[in-house]
Amino acid sequence: MKIHEYQAKELFSSFSIPVPAGKIASTPREASEAAASLSGPVVVKAQIYAGGRGKAGGVRLVDSPQEAEGAAEKILGHPLVTHQTGPAGRMVNRVLVEEATAVKTEIYLGITIDRSRRLPVIMASPAGGMEIEQIAMDSPEKIFKEWIFPEIGLRGFQAYRLALKLGLSAPETKQVARVISNLYRLFVERDCMLVEINPLVIDSGGSVIALDAKINFDDSGLFRHPEIEKLRDPNEENPLELEAKKNNLNYIKLDGNVGCLVNGAGLAMATMDLIKLAGAAPANFLDVGGSANEEMIEKGFSLLLSDPDVRAVFINIFGGILRCDILARGIVAAVKRLEVKVPVIVRLEGTNVEQGREILAKSGLEFLRASDLDEAATLIARALQGEEK
Amino acid sequence: MSILVDKNTRVLVQGITGREGSFHTQQMLAYGTNVVCGVTPGKGGQEVHDVPVFNTVAEAIMEAKPNAAMIFVPPRFAADAILEAAEGGIELVICLTEGIPVNDMVRVRRYLDIHGTNLIGPNTPGVISPGKAKLGLMAGYIHREGGVGVMSRSGTLTYEAVNQLSQRGIGQSTCVGIGGDPIVGLSFTDLLALFEKDEQTEAVVLIGEIGGNAEEQAARYIADKFTKPVVSFIAGRTAPPGRRMGHAGAIVTGGTGTAAAKIAALSDAGVTVVESPAQIGSAIAALI
Predict the structure, then answer these.
(1) Mutate which of B158, B238, B252, B280 to test chain A, going by most A C-beta atoms within 10 A?
(2) Are strands B47-48 and B51-54 parallel, antiparallel or unpaired?
(3) Of A158, B26, B37, B201, which cross-links B60 as Cys (Cβ 3.0–4.6 Å)?
């Protein structure tokens, strides 16, 4: 789960990580008032989850409350298109107004889980302001790392050793080491998958300040943090995905036009790949779960059909514990109730598959039945070319 | 032979009185698995499908001498259940639970490494050595005994591969789901080492997916040390970067963990990587 920059900065503050003085605003008027209550020039920053806001015009430096109001007017209520949002962009509903910082030095600081070492890793780089992926490609020698053994935690010498590599003055180094320790505490205590400060800056007065803040939480850890769950912004999520979540379905909207409904995440990904190989493109990822019932199938199906992009539906189920006859009943019920107008390709395999196929055949509905994955791929391609149905 | 589990495996089911634990205990007993005891705190003295239930793993070990544990415990208690099994000296722990916090698993792995406990999962369908023992959720009847080792990060996609093999009359030595989470126990590489030594295994199917670098590590091991033919399919070529595709571990982050990189690494190591999930069975048939 992601949160906004202003929320992440509030969390930083509560972990003693210094951030610029700032206020959140949802109207140009509020932005002006926020600027008036702060001192000196301010930065008006669009609050969306995606990165790349600066280059896209979503971050503006202004000199007066009046200018802050003007900047907010240009940003608020408009979609912001960055390299991470896709062409439609993301609607901006809030701006963060904060005191501008006179930047002397920019640093990158991040903590994540190193999956191959199976340990948390802290990464620091003097090449702050650039994306870490870019630094890794251009100058990997400028990324320094410390791995943490969770049973003893991050030790003071490790935080200091990492800070020392950044080429700062002695007092700056100590301050950065403190930020590293506090950031690790936040990472562990709030069950994060990623925390990132890019850039962490030294200002002209020699103080360390987090200019940006990014946090991704571990969805599996959220049960321990009801206060974090409350920070979720429904405006940042696709409405279909939100609807799916309410029904315990694992759904991700994609760009293509073949809707697919599958049991199991691995098979769902493989099904998307199969659709692509058939010369089409998947409209979504949908895993109804290994133990889906008739009702889940129907909910998943109606979700697929509410996507206007969908021109054909492919149902790919491998029944194990979940029996094919039960599934077939769910599919037939859903198709009858929802008045489906697009071709439906069904491939069933596994427990009670014969009964399942018979239920589909006797339903009086027009299913394109595939006996294996190869045949399914052929049927998808044909359905889209309009040769069948 | 086979790897990890066979007729001599004595199974302890943690969370045996729960809906899932009880249902799958029955299914496993029906398959012929030797389930010798179960544990649910507060339910000691009961029986589930004639299997005695104890309050603690320590008690269960004293009374019934299990050597493998299966964990059907909700996410917030699952890390504790794994540690309790490891502390009691159980050699093989299979954790089926999905949704254990990553921070918990980081700590659990450190403890298991120190104690030499083998963990399968979490978030796995389990392990089956067809004809010998089933320690998992998979439908037993789609499998048949034979010479192909199957390892995967997924559930139903593994059933798909197994089914393609069985329908061609090709049996399996052992099928293992390593788990769909970012931090798991035994890796593809660990299992390859076991399959290499196993006389029953003639070839291996490796079913990977986006996220992490377990497939790349396996590719290195195959190039250096593995002598049997390997067929692989990597799911998620069409998955958008930065999105978690169902499994907590299936995510491309910062350009790492892509299907393309995994396919290239495996192909370079001499593995037959099939483009379509429909080709897994035929690719193995062509090799053996």
Answers:
(1) B238
(2) antiparallel
(3) B37
d(CA A78, CA A46): 10
User: What's the whole-number average pLDDT of chain B?
Assistant: 96
Biggest distance spanned by C-alpha atoms of chain A: 80
Residue-level pLDDT at A334: 85
Contacts for A309 with CB less than 8 Å, ≥ 6 apart: A255, A256, A257, A283
Please list the active-site residues of B.
Answer: 247
What pLDDT is attached to residue A389? Answer: 41
- Nearest CA among B208, B271, B243 for reference residue A266: B208
Boundaries of every domain in chain A? 1-19+102-237, 21-100, 238-388
Cα dihedral B109, B113, B118, B121, rounded to 10, equals: 20
Q: Is the CB of residue A186 less than 8 Å from the CB of residue A174?
A: no
The pLDDT of residue A337 is 85
What CA–CA distance (Å, rounded) separates A260 from B245? 14
Per-residue confidence (pLDDT) for residue B151, from 0 to 100? 98
CB–CB contact B237 A116 (8 Å)? no
List, in order, residues 6 or more apart from A261 with CB less than 8 Å away.
Answer: A286, A288, A297, A300, A301, A304, A313, A314, A315, A316, A317
Instruction: Supply angle C-alpha A251, A230, A221, rounded to 5.
Output: 65
CA–CA dist B99, B126 (Å, integer):
16
Alpha-helical regions (H) of chain A: 5-14, 28-37, 65-75, 132-138, 156-164, 170-189, 226-229, 239-246, 265-277, 294-305, 324-338, 353-361, 373-385
Architecture in CATH of A21-100: 2-Layer Sandwich (3.30)
A188 token code pair: 């562990």
Instruction: Tell me the pairing of strands A22-25 and A42-46.
Output: unpaired
ipTM: 0.94
**pLDDT tens profile B185-197:** 999 999 999 999 9
Superfamily of domain A1-19+102-237: ATP-grasp fold, B domain (3.30.470.20)
Residue B63 CB neighbours (<10 A): 12
Which of B101, B110, B137 lies nearest to residue A150, judging by beta carbons?
Answer: B110
Q: What is the Cα–Cα distance from A191 to B182, expressed in whole angstroms?
A: 14
Contact B105, A221 (CB under 8 A): no
Mutate to test the interface with A, among B20, B156, B166 (most CBs of A within 10 A): B156
Of the partner residues A277, A320, A377, the one whose CB lies closest to the CB of residue B159: A320
Distance of CA B272 to the CA centre of its chain: 22
Cα distances from A340 to residues A192, A301, B115, in angstroms, run 42, 10, 57
Closest C-alpha among A260, A267, A220 to residue B154: A267
Going by CATH, does the domain composed of A238-388 fall within 3.40.50.261?
yes
pLDDT of residue A44: 97
Work out the average pLDDT over B174-182: 97
Strands of the sheet containing B133-136, edge to edge, are B133-136, B126-129, B172-177, B145-152, B203-209, B230-235, B272-273
| Spans in chain A with pLDDT lower than 50 | 387-389
